[in-house]
């Protein structure tokens, strides 16, 4: 396993332990890879203590290559296969009143094939929720509905 895969496995087990800590009687379904991708994208904009905490939680180091390695992992996952379909899609939804750095947007596009879509969460929270749910439903061919 490469360091990116090992970090994802550690993160997945740690997250499972946390999510399962309070109720061990029920079923639990989540996508550690999708959560890792989301956190790594937001890590691109994190600084100082927040950045340090995120690096620790994700079990990655600040070596500058974590995003490149994850980008290669995404490319491998999204490679067409003859007998099954597997893909990882990403998008960040940000508040319209916030100015995002161009370098941040370029990095999420480059490493995670993700765009940033601005929504007016402050004024239209319910419309924003419906919009995100529709995007997820479309990208998962109707498999995931009403994520939020």
UniProtKB/TrEMBL annotation:
Any one GO molecular function term: serine-type endopeptidase inhibitor activity
Serpin domain segment(s): 7-148
Domain of life where this protein originates: Eukaryota
SUPFAM superfamilies recorded: Serpins
Keywords assigned: Protease inhibitor, Serine protease inhibitor
One Gene Ontology CC term in the entry: extracellular space
InterPro entries associated with the record: Serpin_dom, Serpin_fam, Serpin_sf, Serpin_sf_1
The protein's name in its UniProt record: Serpin domain-containing protein
């Amino acid at each position: 396993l490469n360091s990116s895969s090992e970090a994802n496995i550690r993160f997945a087990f740690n997250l499972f332990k946390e999510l399962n800590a309070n109720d061990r009687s029920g079923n639990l379904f989540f996508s550690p890879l999708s959560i890792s991708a989301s956190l790594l994208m937001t890590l691109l904009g994190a600084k100082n203590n927040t950045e340090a905490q995120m690096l620790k939680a994700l079990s990655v180091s600040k070596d500058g290559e974590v995003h490149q390695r994850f980008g290669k992992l995404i490319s491998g996952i999204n490679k067409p296969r003859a007998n099954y379909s597997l893909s990882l899609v990403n998008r960040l939804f940000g508040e319209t009143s916030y100015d995002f750095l161009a370098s941040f947007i370029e990095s999420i596009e480059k490493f995670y094939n993700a765009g940033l879509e601005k929504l007016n969460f402050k004024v239209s929270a319910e419309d924003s929720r419906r919009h995100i749910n529709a995007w997820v439903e479309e990208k998962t061919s109707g498999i995931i509905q009403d994520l939020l």
